[in-house]
């Protein structure tokens, strides 16, 4: 629409001026008409020149103004549409939360009432701190609590259950408290019953056991609820199959030992597979030969150099040594062995003659009998200076360095018995030989090695066969044959277990069936099977494995997807997860656990809102023990902001004493503390350490055994098994160090997405950090006194990182009185930054 009369459409503009000719013609015509008095010229001109033009202008102006008003009014009633929308259609975002957006219905008045009740019913030393109240009162669907050693988390967890049940009316059937071991479960059940009694509830043992679970006792009824699996047995509980209430049986997730019932099933599967799979039989034959054959030793090895000088002397006494050893084997009923030709044959060793005891034709290998460790270690040949076992060790070293024949060295009578069964074709007795996967510390029966390797892979949330298919090994690496055999065996073994009547399944298989890779299986579960996981509280969360995390996430996702219908008729609505842990106490990486899931809790368990609680008060140890332990673990990655402080008043500060290994002196100090009335923990890294120290403590041990269990004050445990315990005085025997390299576990770790990107030794590097955490756990068991006895550094392995490298003698919380120690390494840049 034009904005002014000067901008009119052509039809509204004044007429244009006539041409000169037309104007002259009009003027002549006009004058003629004027003479005839037909018109008055001046009037016409005035009307034409002035009136017409003025009228036109005024008419246009009046029309424009009137039209503009009318047009504006009409324009106000017309919607001007401009399409500013993006191209394409709208796509909703994905809500990947595991929980609904809700909060615990806690009012200020209710919190005040609960605090008053707790103050009245619990003793002063059990009153929660401000941080503990934050944990108890957490209103968000997801909560993670960083609780260091001695933080008093158990009472806080019990009060959380009390809050949900007593004050908010949530049914116990909608809750699960998860502990990791039978012992911790038993302790928590007792504490739950005691606290509920203070509020007037006589909580039945069965009801408490239904709430407090291990992961294993929670997954088991899930599988049993499915058609066809009502009588399912867990492989790990086969020895308890005659026990009533097997569904409540808990297996220790960190115990790899097999019992007779389990071994029998494995041997039966081995027999069937050996007969049906030609490739499996070939692999077993290859592994047997490599496992039994004496391992070579480099001629420059210090042991070889030390013993090569007595080669000729050893050769001269070898026939008598063979006689002595054969007599021992014969007396033990272990010789001769069927399948081994007893043919004493001379072989040349570095230019001197030695003898083998027999020959195995089907393996084309020579046999040498060993000195069984169960025999008297002081036995000597007539006139000999060295005991028989020492002469035998010299002979073995020379054979390892200089023998060119394939030799099977039978270390003991038990090894010979297994070999006899294997040679006799008795497959029901199992493979009959031991194996050591690279990276493991000791050899073990082959099927036990299968269980250990498969368990590690499955704990990482991986499938055994698929993982083996993605591994690679050098062409001559015997582990290549081991893992191919494992892939064949494990698939057959799981099928074999399911064919039993009633069927059997490993716990790992149960968790995998209901993990994130099989969400459809969870759809088959009833609401009752899932409701118990609605409000989940997990202790020791730093020790969860990727497989358990996958199962938890899958269950929480399924609970949310069912919506209100899952909770219809119940007071407890929605779902929640509260996890308590300490990444500094994550010490089960060798079984596939990782602190990653606790350290990255908000990422791993997505929630509309997450609460983080830091319990920094330590109610167990004094500040020097706390500071020493934290100094040891400082180089390891950790949740930021952690710094514990001793609670409970002023106490004497006694530094952690670091001493040279001296079992006799240690026993004397233990006795002194015991006589002073202290409780004592003697912790050791290896079983051999306990055996060596044992003789010096025999008197004290006998004295303890005469007492009732509740009155005993001396416990001997490994570093690993001490978690959760405490004592006035703690004695540590042995260093914490990662001494092996595990190529296959490094590969599995990468496949599971653990470790740093591009790290080719992710598992080994994680273990180097874990040994620091293990030392932290051991030291923080101490209430008042901690003594750490460390062996002389090994000269043949000087580059191994040890937890004791972190001991700082210039710090007040350490008293380092060692005389035999390696130079302290320079701290890494990352350690300096910390």
């Amino acid at each position: 629409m034009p904005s002014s009369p000067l901008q009119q459409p052509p039809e509204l503009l004044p007429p244009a001026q006539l041409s000169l000719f037309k104007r002259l013609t009009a003027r002549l015509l006009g004058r003629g008409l004027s003479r005839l008095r037909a018109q008055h010229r001046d009037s016409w001109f005035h009307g034409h020149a002035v009136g017409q033009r003025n009228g036109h202008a005024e008419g246009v102006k009046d029309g424009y103004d009137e039209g503009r008003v009318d047009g504006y009014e009409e324009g106000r009633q017309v919607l001007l549409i401009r399409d500013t929308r993006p191209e394409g259609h709208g796509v909703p975002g994905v809500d990947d939360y595991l929980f609904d957006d809700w909060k615990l219905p806690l009012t200020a008045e209710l919190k005040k009432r609960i605090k008053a009740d707790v103050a009245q019913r619990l003793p002063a030393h059990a009153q929660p701190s401000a941080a503990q109240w934050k944990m108890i009162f957490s209103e968000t669907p997801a909560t993670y609590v960083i609780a260091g050693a001695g933080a008093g988390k158990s009472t806080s967890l019990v009060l959380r259950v009390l809050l949900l049940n007593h004050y908010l009316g949530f049914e116990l059937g909608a809750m699960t408290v998860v502990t990791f071991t039978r012992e911790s479960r038993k302790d928590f059940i007792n504490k739950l019953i005691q606290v509920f009694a203070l509020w007037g509830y006589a909580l039945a043992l069965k009801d408490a056991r239904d709430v407090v679970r291990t992961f294993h006792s929670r997954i088991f009824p899930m599988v049993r609820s499915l058609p066809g699996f009502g009588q399912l047995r867990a492989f790990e509980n086969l020895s308890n199959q005659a026990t009533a209430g097997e569904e409540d049986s808990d297996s220790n997730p960190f115990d790899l030992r097999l019992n007779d019932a389990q071994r029998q099933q494995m041997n039966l599967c081995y027999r069937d597979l050996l007969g049906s799979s030609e490739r499996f039989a070939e692999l077993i034959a290859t592994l047997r030969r490599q496992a039994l054959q004496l391992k070579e030793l480099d001629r420059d090895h210090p042991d070889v150099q030390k013993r090569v000088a007595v080669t000729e002397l050893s050769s001269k006494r070898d026939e008598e040594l063979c006689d002595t050893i054969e007599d021992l084997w014969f007396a033990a009923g272990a010789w001769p062995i069927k399948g081994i030709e007893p043919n004493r044959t001379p072989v040349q060793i570095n230019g001197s003659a030695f003898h083998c005891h027999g020959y195995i034709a089907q393996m084309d290998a020579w046999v040498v009998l060993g000195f069984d460790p169960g025999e008297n270690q002081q036995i000597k040949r007539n006139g000999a200076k060295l005991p028989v076992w020492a002469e035998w060790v010299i002979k073995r070293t020379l054979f390892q360095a200089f023998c060119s024949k394939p030799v099977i060295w039978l270390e003991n009578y038990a090894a010979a018995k297994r070999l006899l069964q294997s040679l006799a074709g008795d497959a029901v007795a199992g493979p009959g030989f031991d194996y050591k996967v690279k990276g493991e510390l000791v050899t073990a029966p082959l099927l036990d090695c299968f269980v250990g390797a498969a368990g590690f892979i499955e704990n990482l949330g991986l499938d055994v066969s698929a993982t083996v298919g993605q591994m690679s090994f050098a062409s001559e690496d015997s582990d290549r044959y081991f893992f191919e055999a494992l892939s064949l065996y494990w698939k057959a073994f799981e099928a074999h277990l399911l064919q039993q009547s009633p069927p059997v399944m490993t716990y790992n298989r149960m968790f995998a069936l209901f993990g994130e890779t099989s969400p459809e299986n969870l759809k088959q579960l009833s609401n009752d099977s899932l409701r118990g996981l609605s409000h989940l509280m997990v202790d020791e969360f730093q020790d969860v494995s990727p497989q358990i995390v996958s199962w938890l996430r899958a269950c929480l996702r399924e609970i949310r997807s069912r919506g209100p219908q899952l909770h219809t008729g119940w007071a407890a609505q929605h779902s929640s997860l509260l996890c308590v842990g300490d990444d500094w106490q994550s010490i089960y990486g060798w079984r596939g656990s990782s602190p990653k899931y606790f350290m990255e809790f908000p990422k791993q368990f997505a929630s509309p809102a997450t609460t983080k609680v830091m319990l920094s008060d330590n109610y167990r140890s004094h500040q020097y023990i706390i500071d020493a332990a934290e100094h040891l673990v400082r180089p390891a990655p950790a949740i930021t902001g952690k710094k514990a402080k001793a609670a409970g008043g002023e106490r004497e500060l006694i530094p952690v004493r670091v001493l040279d290994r001296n079992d006799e002196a240690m026993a004397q100090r233990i006795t002194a503390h015991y006589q002073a009335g202290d409780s004592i923990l003697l912790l050791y890294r290896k079983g051999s350490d306990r055996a060596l120290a044992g003789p010096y403590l025999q008197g004290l041990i006998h004295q303890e055994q005469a007492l009732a269990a509740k009155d005993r004050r001396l416990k001997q445990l490994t570093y690993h098994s001490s978690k959760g315990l405490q004592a006035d005085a703690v004695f540590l025997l042995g260093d914490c160090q990662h001494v092996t390299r595990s190529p296959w576990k490094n590969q599995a770790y990468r496949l599971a997405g653990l470790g740093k990107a591009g790290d080719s030794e992710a598992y080994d590097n994680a273990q180097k950090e874990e040994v620091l955490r293990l030392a932290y756990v051991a030291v923080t068991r101490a209430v008042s006194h901690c003594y750490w006895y460390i062996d002389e550094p090994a000269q043949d392995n000087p580059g191994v990182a040890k937890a004791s490298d972190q001991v700082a003698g210039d710090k007040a919380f350490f008293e380092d009185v060692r005389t035999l120690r390696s130079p302290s390494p320079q701290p890494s840049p990352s350690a300096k930054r910390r």
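The radius of gyration is 42 Å. Residues 1-6, 241-248, 824-834 have pLDDT under 50 and may be disordered.
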